[in-house]
Automatic annotation (TrEMBL):
The gene is sprT. It is found in: Cytoplasm. The active site is at E70. It comes from the Bacteria. It comes from Pseudomonas farsensis. SMART domains: SprT. Keywords: Cytoplasm, Hydrolase, Metal-binding, Metalloprotease, Protease, Zinc. Binds 1 zinc ion. The lineage of its organism: Bacteria, Pseudomonadati, Pseudomonadota, Gammaproteobacteria, Pseudomonadales. HAMAP family: SprT. This is Protein SprT.
Length: 164
């Protein structure tokens, strides 16, 4: 499946070369991106990273819009240098002029949020609990203290957890 994506990257570069009448070095393409981002362009490494899960779930739009979006970042950087804004005029010019696509900054793909365990902390205040992340819970185990803003007492782990 990533072959189509790599072909689309090449097509985007060929379009840019035709439009600007100059060659562009091809980037390394990685599929090691997770989370909410569909793609990331690493300008100084000439590297594109794509989220395979979002690609699989949104293949048609991903190939058309997301790949062009990320390639446009690299092309803009190579044409105009470091001093441009990520989604500024130069990038927008490439999206509209070269790819004839809207210069959308963000995708609107449905992203599955993973569930997270929260560690429930309490104080003397009635009907109030404080859900801590695993990272914060670990800091408490190492000696960090957190205070309730209302009663100023140290928050204490209740022994309970919940999944959000």
């Amino acid at each position: 499946m990533p072959e189509l994506l790599k072909q689309r990257v090449e097509t985007c570069y060929q379009q840019a070369e035709t439009f600007f009448k100059r060659p562009f070095p091809r980037p390394q393409v990685s599929f090691k991106l997770r989370g909410q981002k569909a793609g990331v362009a690493h300008l100084h490494e000439n590297l594109l990273r794509f989220n395979l899960q979002l690609y699989r779930e949104n293949q048609e739009d991903f190939l058309r819009q997301t790949v062009a979006h990320e390639v446009a970042h690299l092309v803009a950087h190579q044409l105009f240098g470091d001093r441009i804004q990520a989604h500024g005029e130069e990038w927008q010019l490439i999206m509209r002029g070269v790819y004839e696509l809207p210069p959308n900054r963000c995708h609107n793909y449905a992203v599955q949020r993973r569930s997270a365990t929260r560690y429930i902390y309490t104080c003397r205040c009635p009907e109030q609990d404080f859900p801590f992340t695993a990272q914060r819970h670990t800091l408490v185990a190492k000696g960090r203290r957190y205070l309730c803003k209302r009663c100023r007492q140290t928050l204490v782990f209740s022994g309970q957890t919940r999944v959000e």
